[in-house]
């Protein structure tokens, strides 16, 4: 089962291997990139969300700080106005004028103070502040009606007694307290106040300046921002002192205690949902107030995540587009390889006439061209081998035909030799014996190759027979080292050369035929020489060209002068080439009147005994 599954999963096509490798090389880095991208994106989204929340909070903090600082500006105006302070000090010291004229002056001075307090709303850039000046002698001035609130009730506030230790320009900020103005309680149930003290030059306390603002004026700033974000102001004890929802004012915000030391933001679960909580100090001196924002984390990262998700989807889309493009390109690039594979399969089935037809300047094009050329050469070689085999069979047939007659003659001559011996003619018997031995060697060996020793014996008998036929004897010298005699050579390759030397070179007359051999490292040099008539340059050139071209020679055409075998010189070259290949070489040297020398280089073979 496992083996079958493994075979099914095994990819045998180069095209699909390239495609799988390409997809793997793209998918693995892409997957790693996406994982890293996702990790970095989450960190970047979180960082950007915190940054956006901090920036929004910073903007809101600036508006709130400006609003509260304008309250301080109003207090500063009252505290630093010399005319109003002179009047207040006069009243506090008990030196107020009396009498009818003084009463009118007192009335006009009081109205002027009240008018100045009323004008402070213009200083506050349209914000409405309630300003109260309460002197220690019980007199008071304010920019609102006594029916709204009696300033003397300030003395009953819990924080009032702590104002005695307030000096100079130090301010006391009350936390959010219930609204004291009767007609405004319903619309804005809470208010915020800042208090300054009025002191004489000797630091004696003679009055208080109280600037009050409705808490609604603060939370109206919250409504101008993102509705999905809840903004609030908390005091140093993490109690909410300003919120859009009045019910939360006075309650404690527990999440700030979970912040890490020095951290200004955190992501915390609230009622099963993660919230991004950010805080900033309100820059009003040592009040300990903090501006806090609560926003659902998913809502905080929505816009940023949308951008990253769109980029991610664009990357995924681009990846698949380029992947498909890559697969199409790989299919196009590997199409010649597929065609080459189909051609090779058809050749394997025996169709040698098919060609790939692939051409081009790249490696595949050159491979297709080389493959087609190889098929052409294989076809030519098969034809050449077939022709060579046919010629070899013809040569063997010629050898067989040459053996048939000697076989018959051998039996006849053997009988004649016995009769001649009985009649007392030894010379004729010797001649018949040599002929008989020559014929026996020609028909007793069915193998194509014999030892060089046997070949030289055959040539010796042939020369002896020829000398008995001729008027003048031809001398015959064999100069061959003993180790060369064991070399395997084709049968009857020397006899045609000696025959040519006797008939054409020495013209059947007296002369010398020498056979020499020299052992070299990887070949045997064998030379057949005669001191006969030789040949002119034209005949020598013609013969050399025929040898170089390896012309096929028919036995019937090559028979010369009634020689013994009639195989001929060119037939020897052809047989030696068939046996030893192109490594066999033959060179003919001859000069007119100087004789002829045939030099042969026979390569060594591994099966040869002398290797």
TrEMBL record:
Q: What is its EC number?
A: 2.7.13.3
Keyword set includes DNA damage: no
Report the locations given in the UniProt record.
Cell membrane
Q: Which domain of life is it from?
A: Bacteria
The protein's enzyme class: transferase
Provide the Gene Ontology terms for cellular component.
plasma membrane
Q: Where are the transmembrane segments?
A: 311-330
One molecular function GO term is: ATP binding
Question: Which reaction(s) are listed as its catalytic activity?
Answer: ATP + protein L-histidine = ADP + protein N-phospho-L-histidine
Alphabetical list of InterPro entries matching this protein: Bact_2-comp_sensor_kinase, dCache_1, HAMP_dom, HATPase_C_sf, HATPase_dom, His_kinase_dom, Sig_transdc_His_kin-like_C, Sig_transdc_His_kin_internal
Protein topology in the membrane: Multi-pass membrane protein
Q: Does the keyword Membrane apply?
A: yes
Main localisation: membrane
Every copy of the HAMP domain together lies at 331-383
Listed A to Z, the keywords are: ATP-binding, Cell membrane, Kinase, Membrane, Nucleotide-binding, Phosphoprotein, Transferase, Transmembrane, Transmembrane helix, Two-component regulatory system
Domain named Histidine kinase: residues: 494-606
What is the official name of this protein in its record? histidine kinase
Which species is listed as the source? Paenibacillus whitsoniae
């Amino acid at each position: 089962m496992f083996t079958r599954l493994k075979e099914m999963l095994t990819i045998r096509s180069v095209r699909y291997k390239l495609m799988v490798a390409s997809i793997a090389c793209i998918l693995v880095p892409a997957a790693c990139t996406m994982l890293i991208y996702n990790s970095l994106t989450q960190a970047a989204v979180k960082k950007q969300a915190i940054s956006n929340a901090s920036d929004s909070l910073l903007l809101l903090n600036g508006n709130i700080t400006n609003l509260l600082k304008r309250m301080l500006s109003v207090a500063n105006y009252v505290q630093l106005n010399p005319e109003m302070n002179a009047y207040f000090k006069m009243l506090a010291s008990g030196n107020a004028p009396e009498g009818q004229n003084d009463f009118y002056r007192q009335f006009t001075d009081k109205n002027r103070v009240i008018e100045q307090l009323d004008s402070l709303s213009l200083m506050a850039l349209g914000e409405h502040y309630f300003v109260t000046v309460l002197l220690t002698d019980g007199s008071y001035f304010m920019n609102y009606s006594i029916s709204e609130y009696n300033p003397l009730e300030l003395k009953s506030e819990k924080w009032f007694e702590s104002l005695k230790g307030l000096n100079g320009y130090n301010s006391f900020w009350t936390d959010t307290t219930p609204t004291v103005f009767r007609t405004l309680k319903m619309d804005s149930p809470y208010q915020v106040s800042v208090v300054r003290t009025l002191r004489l030059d000797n630091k004696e306390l003679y009055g208080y300046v109280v600037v009050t603002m409705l808490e609604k004026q603060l939370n109206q700033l919250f409504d101008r921002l993102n509705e999905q974000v809840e903004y609030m102001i908390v005091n140093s004890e993490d109690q909410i002192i300003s919120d859009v929802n009045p019910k939360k004012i006075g309650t404690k915000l527990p999440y700030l205690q979970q912040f890490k030391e020095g951290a200004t933001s955190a992501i915390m679960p609230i009622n099963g949902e993660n919230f991004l909580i950010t805080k900033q100090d309100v820059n009003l001196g040592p009040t300990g107030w903090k501006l806090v924002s609560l926003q659902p984390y998913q809502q905080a990262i929505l816009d940023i995540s949308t951008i990253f998700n769109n980029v991610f989807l664009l990357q995924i889309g681009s990846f698949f587009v380029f992947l498909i493009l890559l697969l199409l390109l790989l299919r196009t690039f590997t199409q010649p390889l597929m065609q080459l594979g189909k051609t090779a399969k058809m050749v394997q089935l025996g169709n040698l006439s098919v060609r790939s037809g692939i051409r081009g300047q790249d490696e595949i094009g050159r491979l297709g061209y080389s493959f087609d050329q190889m098929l052409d050469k294989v076809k030519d070689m098969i034809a050449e081998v077939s022709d060579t085999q046919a010629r070899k069979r013809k040569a063997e047939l010629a050898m067989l035909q040459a053996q048939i007659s000697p076989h018959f003659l051998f039996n006849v001559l053997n009988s004649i030799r016995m009769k001649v011996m009985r009649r007392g003619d030894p010379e004729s018997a010797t001649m018949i014996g040599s002929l008989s031995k020559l014929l026996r060697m020609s028909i007793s060996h069915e193998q194509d190759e014999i030892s060089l020793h046997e070949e030289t014996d055959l040539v010796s008998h042939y020369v002896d027979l020829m000398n008995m036929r001729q008027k003048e004897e031809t001398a015959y010298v064999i100069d061959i080292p003993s180790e060369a005699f064991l070399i395997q050579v084709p049968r009857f390759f020397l006899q045609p050369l000696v025959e040519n030397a006797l008939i054409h070179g020495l013209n059947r007359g007296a002369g010398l035929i020498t056979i020499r051999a020299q052992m070299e490292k990887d070949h045997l040099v064998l030379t057949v020489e005669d001191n006969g008539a030789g040949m002119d340059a034209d005949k020598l050139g013609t013969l050399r060209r025929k040898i170089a071209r390896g012309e096929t020679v028919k036995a019937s055409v090559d028979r010369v002068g009634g020689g013994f075998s009639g195989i001929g010189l060119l037939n020897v070259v052809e047989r030696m080439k068939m046996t030893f290949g192109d490594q066999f070489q033959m060179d003919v040297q001859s000069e007119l009147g100087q004789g002829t020398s045939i030099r042969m280089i026979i390569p060594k073979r591994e099966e040869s005994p002398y290797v």
